[in-house]
Amino acid sequence: MGARKRNAAEARKEVMSKTAIAKLNDCPTSPRKMRLVADIIRGKDVVSALNILKFSSKEASGRMEKLLRSAIANWEEKNEGSRAEESGLYVSEVKVDSARMLKRIQPAPQGRAHRIRKRSNHVTIIVDSLKK
């Protein structure tokens, strides 16, 4: 490995040491519905984001809340001895990507058939601390 690649890799490793990632794969909710919830919490601090998700009436918010709690636990495990409330933790990035689609057939009148697409998604949450 060259010096330039090594320096870039060390810089990436330093940045990733302050962040924590949690992923949810093949969540059986359509990506559009999950993105509505993701847009609400993006950029917020984790305490207010958890409150927003807890009291949201959307079905996808329960899964997103569980994933955010997992990201917070990952951050606390990475940075031993520090708590999320004191360190100014916030949701730095939320990505919702499309996953596999189950294709089903629904019988329709006059011998026809309608295709039903049951969508799913992948969600990635990255949590970072404000205090460097």
Question: Can you put this structure into words, describing what you see?
Answer:
This protein has 132 residues and is an alpha+beta fold. The chain has one domain: Alpha-Beta Complex (Ribosomal Protein L22, Chain A). The chain is built from four helices and three strands, in the order αβαααββ. Strands 1-3-2 form a three-stranded antiparallel sheet. α3 runs antiparallel to α4. The protein is flat and about 65 Å long.
Primary descriptors:
132 residues, alpha+beta, Ribosomal Protein L22, Chain A, 3-stranded antiparallel beta sheet, 4 helices, 3 strands, 41% helix, flat
CATH architecture: Alpha-Beta Complex
Number of structural domains = 1
Strand runs, count: 3
> Which structural category do the helix and sheet elements fall into?
alpha+beta
Radius of gyration: 19 Å
CATH topology: Ribosomal Protein L22, Chain A
What's the helix count? 4
Question: What's the gist of this structure?
Answer:
This protein is an alpha+beta fold. It is built from four helices and three strands; from the N terminus they run αβαααββ. A three-stranded antiparallel β-sheet has the order 1-3-2.
